[in-house]
Hints:
Layout: H1 2-35, H2 38-49, H3 56-61, H4 64-73, E1 75-77, H5 102-108, E2 117-123, E3 128-134, E4 140-143, E5 153-154, H6 155-162, E6 166-169, E7 189-191, E8 194-197, E9 206-210, E10 215-218, H7 222-227, E11 230-235, E12 239-242, E13 245-246, E14 248-250, E15 260-265, E16 271-277, H8 289-298, E17 303-306, E18 315-317, E19 320-321, E20 335-336, E21 339-342, H9 345-349
Antiparallel strand pairs: 1-14, 2-3, 3-16, 4-21, 5-20, 6-18, 6-21, 7-8, 7-11, 9-10, 9-11, 12-13, 12-17, 15-16, 15-17, 18-19
Amino acid sequence: MKRKEKKEKKKRHVHKFTFGVIFLDLVVIAALVVINTSEFKAFWIPTAMTTMTHKYLAYTLYDEDTVNKVMSENYIEQNTDEVNLDDVVIGDTSNKTHFVSKYEEDLYTRTPGNEVYKIIRLEEKKFKGYLTVIYDPADVDLAIPQKLGKAGESVNTLCKKNGGLVGINGGGFEDLDGWGNGSIPYGAIINNGELVWTHSGGSGQLIGFTKDHKLWLTNDDPATAISKGMEDAVEFGPNLIVNGKVSKIHGDGGWGTAPRSVIAQRRDGIVLFLIIEGRLPGYSIGATMNDVIEMLLRYGAYNAANLDGGASSTMSVNGKLYNKPSAGGEYGGRTVSNAWIATNKTRKACEGCITY
């Protein structure tokens, strides 16, 4: 009996081992099928190639020719029109009662006790994030570190030091091996009508606000932009929407699926700060440029531009980190080179005045 039991036990072990090997073979076959689909390549390669430290992941699965081919098929044809600033008419939006969509109704409906901004939670199938609505564009400012060129500061710190009630990160910076601390911004920075920083590596596109609080996206050089009325600006991109017309995205635009930061303005002057969380498996993967454009159009964005994304995508509310960044959350978010913030300056300067 004992010998027979041993034989049966041995057979069971053999069967389990055989089934295990078959299962692993099936997993490997399935993985090979998946990674060779055009859909997976279009997701994996641009997503890896737009990171600072994980480009190797693209080459782990694919050869150089495949990577180059996929990247050449995923790009953005930017809308190169000049922004028509006259299209943006800043007016009273506080008493609006007719809405063209549920998104517009949500946008215009103020949070009780808060006339400066409203935060709308976004929960889509692939990603989560926040849309901050700033009702008076005069409340929007660019905050820069005290030691610009030597050390960056977190969005939290930039908000606290500059009276920001809510803020998001702005332009990019040198990020060698993923250890950049925001100390060396890329491109130009204009603050209070003055060129305060310029450095190589920028996109050549200025994203900023004029003296009359209109979002201006321009390829003008900083000196020319300032002469035309640019008050605050950073150099980044690409432009996603210009005069209500979207840039054409081929594939995923070559920017992959990732955390995003975007700034936009509606025709009535309302400014939108968009933060998309990503690279957090099981919570939020991230968004493509097409995802971002679709989200912005829902809320009536007329002009919009991409800001620095990835781990830099951070949002501060009342001096505290509000979103879940893909890295650095335990430290209150990465230190960055600048931030777009919303203050309460209109109401401070005009106590008791009706500003809308």
